[in-house]
Amino acid sequence: MNNLSDIGLIGLGVMGQSLILNLEDKGFSVSCYNRTRQNLDQFINERAAGKKISGFCDLEAFTKSLKRPRKVILMIPAGKPVDQSIELLIPLLESEDIIIDGGNSHYADSERRNQLLKEKKLLFVGLGVSGGEEGALKGPSMMPGGNESAWPAVKPYLQAIAAKLADGSPCCEWMGDGGAGHFVKMVHNGIEYGDMQLICEAFHLMHAGLKMDYAEIKHVFENWNKGDLNSYLIEITGEIMSAKDPDTGKAMLDVILDKAGQKGTGSWTAQIALEMGVAIPQIAEAVFARNLSALKQQRSEAAEKHRWNAPTNGKKEMLIEQLEKAVYASKIASYAQGFSLLRAASNKFAWKLNYANIAQVWRAGCIIRAKFLSNIKSEFERNENLENLLMADFVAEKLDQTAQKGWREVLIFAISKGIPMPSMSSALNYFDGYRCEKLPANLLQAQRDFFGAHTFERVDRPAGEFFHHNWY
User: Fold this and answer.
1) Considering all CA atoms of the chain, what is the largest pairwise distance in Å, rounded to the nearest integer?
2) Tell me: the pLDDT tens digits for 419-431?
3) Cβ atoms 56, 62 nearer than 8 A
4) Quick check: 294 and 260 in contact, CB under 8 A?
5) Would strands 123-130 and 141-146 be described as parallel, antiparallel, or unpaired?
6) Taking Cα atoms as reference points, which of 146, 69, 75, 77 lies closest to residue 113?
């Protein structure tokens, strides 16, 4: 039938509405389903008025309005609502129809759903979407994974609505089987936690340590955004510095409580890294920093109990120059940790992740989009077996003696002032640990063998041979 829609979407939240309008703007006809008639009618009669968008409150009628193979995007809260929607859709769909979960689902749930739909002769796509409401409307970064048989059918739609680079390349490529798409999105969010915390620490050092006002700090962030640190998060941070509260006329930062929220994807990243034995301390510290911020009353009491008379030292201009290098170096360390986790997961689940493609997808549309992702993409194109980004040539060039000196001196200044820098200091510790030829793990292993007979390897024997010493 000629009047059938190209694609369907369930869920008329902010993201769902924006994706529908994006799809229609790219020339596709869209059916949308929502349980409540009031919200559906409001959308159809207002934002969707006059467009190739059809609304349904009956799920069977919704599925019958779609061209085969049917393509249904779920933009609903992660967890049980997704499972319930899939259960309702299964009897209404036919072989080779496709369900696309565009929510912030856990990768293990996507693995399970992919297998379930295979058994039902249906195809599943776990779609990581980044960019918020504006991205969904104008072009998000998208990370699809699941059943690769679905990719040819959904590719034209997803790449059409994705963010585009200057050369027209879409920020949407196939990630891998099962939960690969949502895993990559989870790591994206973990890196996002790290990026945001680093920027907050730089702000804190300038504001509390160097006594700079918001206008001065805005100028610094605007300058940084013209160089190597060019990124979405640096850009919006500069804008935040000049925002005013309409009710009081005060700076917005002076009326917002210093108590950060989180939705859990950063915690997932840290937990899975622990399970896989991958070191991502900087990302974990960013999660812990949010947890610590939640203890507002305790922190206020501790501030009274444990006072620190900070010395008046530090030359502002020099420290700001060093701080720029420190933030850049710390960002590199954060991305290095994220890609290390992706490599471990790819090996464990046989996903065959393409790291150059991931860097490409993250270059526009998403929250962590940044200039230096083009360098990361180039490095992985040159060497797809690159074990750690810290070994990349452009990183070695950037982290020369001058940059390392600035990184360390910024942290020395922060420590002397009593300003917490958990993410930046963790980044330096990760860097120093990774580049340290001999760590004290020999002592640690000796301790383990002493009290628990856990054995150890020897420097003068082949790797994989284990020994025990009689310590008593």
Assistant:
1) 85
2) 999 999 999 999 9
3) yes
4) yes
5) antiparallel
6) 146
Cα separation, 414 vs 204, in Å, equals 9
- Is there a cis peptide before residue 281, judged by omega within 30 degrees of 0? no
Q: How many residues does the chain have?
A: 472
Percent of the chain whose pLDDT exceeds 70: 99
DSSP structure string for 44-64: HHTTTTTSSEEEES-HHHHHH
**Which single residue is written with the structure tokens 């500069």?**
238
Residue of 59, 441, 47, 62 whose CA lies nearest to 279:
441
The helix/strand/coil state of 66 is strand
Residue 87's SS3 state is helix
> In whole angstroms, what is the distance from residue 234 CA to residue 224 CA?
8
Q: Taking CA 450 as the corner, what is the angle to CA 446 and CA 456, rounded to the nearest 5 degrees?
A: 45
- Report which DSSP code applies to 179: T
Closest alpha carbon to 174 in 146, 138, 207: 146
Mean pLDDT, rounded, of the chain: 93
Distances (CA, A) of 70 to 54, 90, 97: 15, 12, 5
On whether the CB atoms of residues 361 and 172 are closer than 8 A, the answer is yes
Retrieve residue 166's tokens: 């200057």
Which residues are part of the catalytic machinery?
185, 192
pLDDT at 313: 61
The span from the CA of 84 to the CA of 218, in Å, is: 47
Q: Under the phi-then-psi rule, with left for phi > 0, alpha for psi from -120 to 50, and beta for the rest, what region is 323?
A: alpha
Q: How far apart are CA 357 and CA 171, in angstroms?
A: 9
Structure letter (DSSP) for residue 420: -
**pTM (two decimals):** 0.92
CA–CA gap between residue 427 and residue 330 (Å, rounded): 5
DSSP per-residue letters across 323-377: HHHHHHHHHHHHHHHHHHHHHHHHHHHT----HHHHHHHTTSSSTT-BTTHHHHH
Structure tokens, 296: 């507002």
Contact 42, 104 (CB under 8 A): no
